[in-house]
Amino acid sequence: MQLITTNLIANPCDEEEDNMAMLCCHSAKGEMFILARYPDEDEVELTWDDEPSTLEGLKVTLSDSTLLIELAAGDADALGGKDHLEILHSTAPEDMAEVEETLQNILRGTGTYIRA
């Protein structure tokens, strides 16, 4: 499955939301993707088109133009039966450090983060 977005919106620690780390984006087609985690929880919440799911064992690979989300086989229902989501983005280079910090906060201790 693939989503195309202009940029990834990241917040490594939202103080107004109990220090939740959140990454989100929207496509031109209206698709919405959110990946979030509170610091005191072991599970990551993934929301795809207004359908939230909690996951463990998530693998995320970030490059300058792609974000690849890979789910465990048992979690494929979170993406409508697919086990991965490829997000093509054109996030500004100066914003990538915040995206990377956010993903590290979300996945720390509960998933795998790779910077490609």
Walk me through the topology.
Elements lengths: L1 E3 L4 E6 L5 E7 L5 E6 L6 E5 L2 E5 L2 E5 L3 E5 L13 E5 L7 H12 L3 E5 L1
Parallel strand pairs: 1-9, 7-10
Antiparallel strand pairs: 2-3, 3-4, 4-5, 5-6, 7-8, 8-9
At a glance:
The chain has one domain (2-115). Helices cover 10% and strands 45% of the residues.
Q: How would you describe the overall organization of this protein?
A:
By secondary structure, the chain is mainly beta. It has one domain. Helix content is 10%, strand content 45%. The protein is built from 1 helix and 10 strands, in the order βββββββββαβ. The protein has one helix at residues 96-107, and strands at 2-4, 9-14, 20-26, 32-37, 44-48, 51-55, 58-62, 66-70, 84-88, 111-115. The strands form 2 sheets. It has a 5-stranded mixed β-sheet with strand order 1-9-8-7-10, covered by helices on one side. Strands 2-3-4-5-6 form a 5-stranded antiparallel β-sheet. A hairpin with a 6-residue loop joins β4 (32-37) and β5 (44-48). The longest helix is centred in the C-terminal third of the chain and has 12 residues, at 96-107. The radius of gyration is 13 Å and the shape is globular.
